[in-house]
Amino acid sequence: MNKSETLELLTRIKEGAVSPEEALEQLTVEPFASVDDYANIDLHRSLRQGQQEVIYGEGKTKEQILGIAKAMLEKGCKNILITRMDPEKAAYVGQQISLFYEESSRIGIAGKTEIPLVGNIAVVTAGTSDLPVAKEAYYTAQTLGNQVSLISDVGVAGIHRLLHRLPDLFQANVIVAVAGMEGALASAVGGLVSCPVIAVPTSVGYGASFGGLSALLAMLNSCASGVSVVNIDNGFGAGYLAGMINQAIAGGSGKTEK
Predict the structure, then answer these.
(1) pTM (2 decimals)?
(2) Are residues 129 and 54 part of one domain?
(3) What is the dihedral sign for C-alpha 159, 174, 131, 113?
(4) How far apart are CA 1 and CA 83, in angstroms?
(5) How many CB atoms lie within 10 A of CB 87?
(6) 222, 201 in Cβ contact below 8 A?
(7) Segments forming the whole domain that contains residue 55
(8) Phi-psi region of 136 (alpha: psi -120 to 50; beta: other; left: phi over 0)
(9) Distance between the two ends of the chain, CA-based, in angstroms?
(10) pLDDT by residue (tens digit) across 116-160?
């Protein structure tokens, strides 16, 4: 049960639609659930942080991913986000439970349902090669209840392409800028907009890019104000943070809602 569901339940108690005893039964949920000897699912995370636990798929076996997802579904969780999930694991899990899977981002969503989307996040890539990381950010933010648009291949090698999309960028509450090589996109975007920019360096590039380190250092040294940086290829971290910022804004004076 998340914060909004808990608040709704308390309102129904106040209105007399639910008895205190019935509410107590719904609220009496153990803070975590153990899955065999390999996982303890944090069931109260949505109450503390507003979002339920996310499953990190890399390093876990397909059986472990399935076991955690099934346990969360049995506890009433929906739209369970699974990151860094390879196609073989996705195929196995998808045979057992309902699973949406997007291969390039390696994102899986178990128990996917339609939810209201709020605010406005723009995920922008320098090149097409940055799309897998950008899509990880896109699906993460969307799954957590945010309206997200994806703008691809507008890097500084053809800056007119970025300027052409300025009307879309101006509508965003927060922008995720994804770039490899020299990582200049984040500074270019940061110098054009008034909203927060989350820079994501990618490992895209030739030898001297050092697997994304060049882009990371360039973004950390950006002279544009309002730019923050996450780790190399960390689309999930950028999408999650963008969602938190966007929902904080949308809860007050967000620019758009769906």
Answers:
(1) 0.84
(2) no
(3) negative
(4) 22
(5) 11
(6) no
(7) 31-110
(8) alpha
(9) 23
(10) 999 999 999 999 999 999 999 999 999 999 999 999 999 999 999
Of 176, 178, 152, 151, give the one whose Cα is nearest residue 232: 178
Angle value at C-alpha 54, between 88 and 51, nearest 5 degrees: 150
In a domain, 52, yes or no: yes
Q: How far apart are CA 45 and CA 220, in angstroms?
A: 30
Task: Give yes or no for a contact between 144 and 103, defined as CB atoms under 8 angstroms apart.
Answer: no
Between the CA of residue 254 and those of 36, 83, 197, what are the distances in Å?
43, 28, 16
Q: Are residues 242 and 164 in the same domain?
A: yes
Q: What angle do CA 88, 92, 97 make, to 5 degrees?
A: 140
Q: Give yes or no: residues 146 and 242 share one domain.
A: yes
Together in a domain, 172 and 198:
yes
Cβ neighbours, 10 Å, residue 234: 21
Which residues have C-beta within 8 Å of that of residue 163, sequence separation ≥ 6?
A: none
Residue 174 β-bridge partners: 121
Nearest to 32 by CA among 83, 85, 68: 68
Please write the tens of the pLDDT for every residue from 181-228: 999 999 999 999 999 999 999 999 999 999 999 999 999 999 999 999
